[in-house]
């Protein structure tokens, strides 16, 4: 049986960094970890339309600094910054702590693995043929300077009775070379036939700093 490992956890401390940066005692750790999870879920739900690939959380005493990476900063900030103030208030009520929000724009969403997986999943929900959606995403990423890309869809593809797995790859995607800058994303498409999982691996050029 194949042994699976999470591509992000696999590269921690070599090519990737933690998505949360703080220290806590044994007693406080579970509570703060749950708080991080709640903040992420709340933001992802609220900013569905804003193309958010990741959220970085940093803590110092009673302050929580949340950095939101987004391809559409205008949606997050809102008119005259109204939207961002609302989000701050909601998170402060939820956690009972002072929240500081930073917005970081993602320059090339087409080579951001999480956003590519999300985009393919949304197309599957709109009943676009899975091969077509995958092919389009692969070509777009390669055009915009990715070294290689692999997309995999698993589930009842095309409404078939038996679930299967299909994938497309272009360029080089060396998944076991830890030095390589491999970005990974996963998203689930909720279709009438059930969930279809979309995984995406993108090998980026070394000129870009590791996330």
TrEMBL record:
Any Pfam family the entry gives: Ribosomal_S3_C
GO cellular component: cytosolic small ribosomal subunit
Keywords of the record: Ribonucleoprotein, Ribosomal protein, RNA-binding, rRNA-binding
Gene3D superfamilies: 3.30.300.20, Ribosomal protein S3, C-terminal domain
KH type-2 domain boundaries: 39-107
Family, as annotated: Belongs to the universal ribosomal protein uS3 family.
Role of this protein: Binds the lower part of the 30S subunit head. Binds mRNA in the 70S ribosome, positioning it for translation.
PANTHER family per UniProt: 30S/40S RIBOSOMAL PROTEIN S3, SMALL RIBOSOMAL SUBUNIT PROTEIN US3C
Protein name in UniProt: Small ribosomal subunit protein uS3
